[in-house]
Amino acid sequence: MKINKELMKGSTVILILTLLNRKDMYGYEMTKEMETHTDGVFTLKEGTLYPILHTLESEKYVEAYWDEKEGRKRKYYRITKSGKAELGLKKEEWQLFRSTVERVIGEGGV
């Protein structure tokens, strides 16, 4: 089943920050991790991922650096201290949103 793009749009920042909170990653690695952890339900295209990363970078939530591994130079991203704080706020916001939606449509609903 495909997820509506509008639903995904509201979740991409928390997903990217969560991935980067686990470890530093380059762009393609993030897209593959997202697909793996969601069994292919969530896919991030480069045209979606990089504008979000650039926005997070301008907001100082992530920072980029170049590194060379196995002879390949790649641009890696890492979460910053303020990015970790923002992730904490996003997780709280997500919990409130999720529990509120579940109260309306969940098992205890009408």
Automatic annotation (TrEMBL):
UniProt xrefs under Pfam families: PadR (PF03551)
Protein name per Swiss-Prot or TrEMBL: DNA-binding protein
UniProt domain Transcription regulator PadR N-terminal: residue ranges: 16-87
Keyword DNA-binding on entry: yes
Gene Ontology molecular function: any one: DNA binding
Source species: Paenibacillus ferrarius
Lineage, broadest ranks: Bacteria, Bacillati, Bacillota, Bacilli, Bacillales
Keywords: DNA-binding
Keyword DNA-binding: yes
